[in-house]
């Protein structure tokens, strides 16, 4: 263990690490660090282990690329889900947003991003190939494109619609009502739930 871990630098290191987390400014980082300093060792150990376990135990589901702690994710391995519908989203957090609405009971496919020529991200950089091979089984009858209603999300939806329609699978897009340029993750549950129910074929 180097010298840095033994003195006041430990506090600074924690402040630096916390400060890198999304949504945590310097004040919040300080509040958390002092809370941990004042807590017993067990509290700090539980937090540290929860973070380590997260990195060791959570991986991508090999079918839908959502996060999973078992071989396949809870949704892919749930026999009660409707296997004729796949909802395509860009990130795992979008799965959580749609699940919270309670309006959808099919499967998902997480692309791992969106098409963005500026960032040199094309279909090859996303899990598009895996989506197409899931459709090849013939069991899926509808694909719902639930990428964000912003430029990249629309570009991605248009590309997927053109690629999937010739396969004879119905393709739909979330209904309008979602704020344009908005983020699926922040849409309220009622609006997002309605957008799924009122999806339109594209
Ligand atoms: Zn899965």
Structure description:
- With 202 residues, the chain is an alpha/beta fold.
- Helices cover 41% and strands 13% of the residues.
- It contains 7 helices and 7 strands.
- The protein has helices at 9-19, 26-38, 41-57, 92-101, 128-135, 151-164, 189-197; strands at 59-60, 67-68, 82-89, 106-110, 142-145, 170-173, 200-201.
- The strands form 2 sheets. The chain has a 5-stranded mixed beta sheet with strand order 4-3-5-6-7. The protein has a two-stranded antiparallel ribbon with strand order 1-2.
- Strand 3, helix 4 and strand 4 (106-110) form a beta-alpha-beta unit.
- Helix 1 packs across helix 2 and helix 4 (92-101) packs across helix 7.
- The longest helix is centred in the N-terminal third of the chain and has 17 residues, at 41-57.
- The radius of gyration is 21 Å and the shape is elongated.
- It starts with 8 loop residues before the first helix and ends with a strand.
- The model is unreliable at 1-5 (pLDDT under 50).
- The structure holds zinc ion.
- Zinc ion binds at residues 61, 63-64, 66, 72-73, 75-76.
